[in-house]
Amino acid sequence: MRHGKKFNHLSRKTAHRKSMLANMACSLIEHKRINTTVAKAKALRQFAEPLITKSKEDTTHNRRIVFSKLRNKDSVSELFREVAPKVADRPGGYIRIIKLGNRLGDNAQMAMVELVDFNELYNPNGAKKKKSTRRAGRKKATTEENVETPSNNEDDAKTNE
């Protein structure tokens, strides 16, 4: 019976599985987005999210814990230097898995794994695209600049007084 055994072994021995997940996590930290199978993506999320949580508090102890899992000094420094400040206010869920369809060769389900705060398309706090309207008779941008210029000058005149 397999009661309570929820760990996905991914058809690999322990050392191979740990090395593979460490390499995938390093690639994810470096490139911010990778493509892999759905099963590996879910295993990677369980592996990498606690490490990102550890990186929020930059202490020597946390760096050593993360380094013992990742085994790549450059990835650890990038995680603590670049990724941690972006996810500082997020309470969890740092990784997004987007299913892509099946692979051509063996029909395996593929997924894109990405760090949530590094995608500008889905990030609501990122740079927003200017909303376009379809109203007829709207003035052109050159006339709007001319209209805005006198009001700015009036504000400047009021501040000078």
Automatic annotation (TrEMBL):
GO CC entries: cytosolic large ribosomal subunit
Molecular-function annotations in GO: structural constituent of ribosome
Spans annotated as Disordered: 123-161
GO biological process, one term: translation
Biased composition (Basic residues): 127-140
Keywords: Ribonucleoprotein, Ribosomal protein
Record's subunit section: Part of the 50S ribosomal subunit. Contacts protein L32.
Family classification: Belongs to the bacterial ribosomal protein bL17 family.
Protein name: Large ribosomal subunit protein bL17
Organism per entry: Psychroflexus maritimus
Lineage per the UniProt record: Bacteria, Pseudomonadati, Bacteroidota, Flavobacteriia, Flavobacteriales
